[in-house]
Amino acid sequence: MKYIIGKDRKQTYLFPISLEDSIEFKNSVRSINQFVDSLNLAALGFRSDFTENGPPAYHPSVLLKLYIYGYMNRIRSSRQLEKECRRNIEVMWLLESLAPDHNTISNFRKDNAKAIKKVFFATVQIARNFGLIGATLIAGDSTKFRAQNSKKNNFNQKKIQRHLDYIDNKLEQYNKALEQSDSENEKEEIKKDIDKHQGRRDQYKKHEQQLKESGEPQISTSDPDSKHMIVRNNITEVAYCVQTTVDADNNIPFDYLVTNKNDSKAMGQMLRRAKVILRTNTFTALYDKGYHTGSEFKTANNLGIETLVAIPGIGRASQAPDPSYNSEHFKYNKEDDTYTCPQANTLKSNGSTYKGRNYRFKQYKTNKCKTCPVRTLCTTSKINGKVIQRSEFHQYIEENAQRVLQNPDAYKKRQAIVEHPYGTIKRQWSFDHITTKKTKQRASADVGFMFIAYNLRRIWNILGDIKTSIIKASKAFVGLIQSLLSYLEVFCEQNSKYQIQA
């Protein structure tokens, strides 16, 4: 049986193949090289001045090309990228055979978070130049990326106190055992255990002091900016929350922001940024119910941006025994600032405003509740009867609800728009955690390269499809012309008085 035989490794060739000949014309590394070379790296903020003493530094373009290539090929580790420089022919071509060490590679990402964000915006500008961003319908959402901080190294006051109580109990047991022991060897072992637990107690006391000084509800010791969050359902992780805004035309993200907070107060800030980036406020923004916050609706209204935010369900504590008597079925009368209940009774306010958690509100109630025949269906309160709270932002909440009801088809597009990048980055590329450690700024650099790689890949794929379509259309057009010419030749042969002129 015959097999394909390889070439002798020791064979010398008269005309060796160059690196340039080894990389085909359509290879994506050529596009990466062209993209980075088109950037003014000094203007973007990459460090370009180095001291004369010591070994020469690598140009920022070398390391930027390496990182973009790495993230596009699911390689984020600086040590792994160092290996690729010596064994990957595409990287050798891209870096012109340079091979920086892993510390140099790692420090570049760590020290250039702001410049990396500007490179991301350069990809957004390319998309805009090719007309891939419509700026008429956008969608926002967030996703959690696990931080380099275990749950054991995240503390709140309750957790610290639980550890202190356990240690105090153990110290009490060891002290009693020390008093009752007659053996010197046994006493020495007990003293070692006491010292060990006392050291742990001192460490937890330091965490407690650090927690009080920070003013935060929790602290993380490995990555200080990361927070313990709910990732999905009841699953929690110490993570970062990445807010993203995506344009609907081609599912291209044009903004991201690494935070350590939940979604409730994020919409206003992201809309403000979107207005600046897109240089317009005529777009419609889609968000899920996690962003349903009155103050954020007011911010959107002040910006002149139309929002469609999913309406969350009423909490169990606010539900009436009969759902038909829930507060949304009470009609508000703007002229006299009152509510009318389904039984046609009027609920009035005493004019006072009360301070809630993040807003101020009025209360509306009526004495008719005492004699109302359907009171047991309307409220479970035995003293005050039905009480309705109207926040200072209620007007904006109602306007959003009307827009959602009037545009049900528009809101249904939200998930398909904004989840597209997350599906690619987290599921297809397996980028579900932050590789950098310590500070939100370093985490932002890691996330920035994810979205740079995504945007470039997305843009090239779309433009490649457009180019293919143009080529196919051109071939079809040429074929049509050739068919017409053939038909005319036959026609002229049959009718000698007609001639084709070139």
Short précis:
This protein has 502 residues and is of the alpha+beta class.
What can you tell me about this protein's structure?
With 502 residues, the protein is α+β, with helices and mostly antiparallel strands. Among the domains are: 19-111, no CATH class; 151-220; 316-393, no CATH class. The protein has helices spanning 19-22, 28-37, 41-44, 60-72, 78-87, 89-94, 102-111, 113-129, 157-180, 184-214, 267-278, 294-303, 375-378, 394-406, 408-411, 414-428, 440-494, and strands at 137-146, 154-156, 218-220, 227-232, 235-247, 252-259, 284-287, 306-309, 331-333, 338-340, 346-349, 354-355, 360-365, 388-391. The strands form three sheets. Strands 1, 4, 5, 6, 7 and 8 form a six-stranded mixed β-sheet that branches. Helix 2 (28-37) packs antiparallel against helix 4 (60-72), helix 9 (157-180) runs antiparallel to helix 10 and helix 11 (267-278) packs parallel to helix 12 (294-303).
Give the termini separation. 59 Å
What is the helical fraction, as a range of percent? Answer: 40-55%
General shape: flat
* Classification by helices and strands: alpha+beta
* Low-confidence blocks of residues: none
The number of helical runs is 17
Query: Mean of residue pLDDT?
Result: 87
Major beta sheet summary: 6 strands, mixed
What is the beta-strand fraction? 5-15%
Radius of gyration: 33 Å
The number of E-state strands comes to: 14
